[in-house]
Write a structure and sequence with these properties.
This protein is an alpha+beta fold and about 190 residues long. It has helices at about 1-15, 30-35, 120-125, 130-140, 160-165, 170-194; strands at about 30, 40-55, 60-70, 80-85, 105-110, 115-120, 145. It has one domain (about 30-194). The longest helix is centred in the C-terminal third of the chain and has 25 residues, at about 170-194. It starts with a helix and ends with a helix. It comes from Litorimonas cladophorae.
Length: about 190
């Protein structure tokens, strides 16, 4: 009986002591115009994905470059295609573009000597997309409170009550509904145009 208990304890110890990895992101706060600076934001359709190679020439685990057909550059870019590097696994904050399915893509300059665009799930989800799209289409700048806490910011002209109202569940649901409506409208426009 004692040996069965010892075996059970050993098995349970190993079962619950595994290392797990997860992507961890924080929501952006501040003015939408500041977030949009230095970002490439497009409505685009992925047309091809390629595994990137490591230094030895072998396909690199999880590193992908996806070529996107730009459908709407929001008057910020004139290119008809862009290539964006990203991871394809969730633990590394990867994204999963579906070939042929259009979506809003938010990418940033790599900032290194190779100069390429990159993105991840944190960048793609770090700001409310409806507010970002409104800024890109109309130029109307909005202050977005930090999503992880409801607090008054210094010298931003936004009151504590306004921050809390923006972060309320009702306001969040409305923004989510607005974004879903925007995506449906964009995809319908694309089908109609073809």
């Amino acid at each position: 009986m004692k040996s069965n208990t010892a075996i059970l304890i050993t098995l349970l110890t190993f079962a619950f002591s595994s290392v797990s990895y997860a992507c961890s992101c924080s929501q952006a706060g501040g003015w939408v115009s500041k977030f949009a600076e230095g970002k490439t934001v497009v409505w685009a359709r992925p047309v091809q994905s390629t595994w990137l190679s490591d230094q030895s020439g072998r396909p690199s685990s999880g590193n992908v470059e996806t070529q996107f057909e730009v459908l709407d550059g929001f008057s910020r870019i004139s290119e008809t295609t862009i290539s964006v590097r990203h991871r394809n696994d969730g633990a590394a904050c990867g994204i999963y573009p579906t070939l042929g399915r259009s979506d809003l893509i938010i990418a940033y300059d790599s900032g290194n000597s190779q100069e390429y665009l990159a993105t991840n799930s944190c960048t793609m989800n770090s700001i409310d997309p409806t507010t970002l799209i409104k800024y890109l289409e109309t130029g109307e700048d909005t202050y977005v409170p930090s999503f992880w806490k409801c607090e008054q910011q210094k010298d931003d002209g936004i009151s504590l009550e306004d921050n809390c109202e923006y972060l309320s569940e009702e306001a969040e649901k409305q923004r989510r509904d607005d974004y879903v409506a925007f995506i449906k409208k964009k995809r319908l426009e694309l089908r109609t145009a073809l």
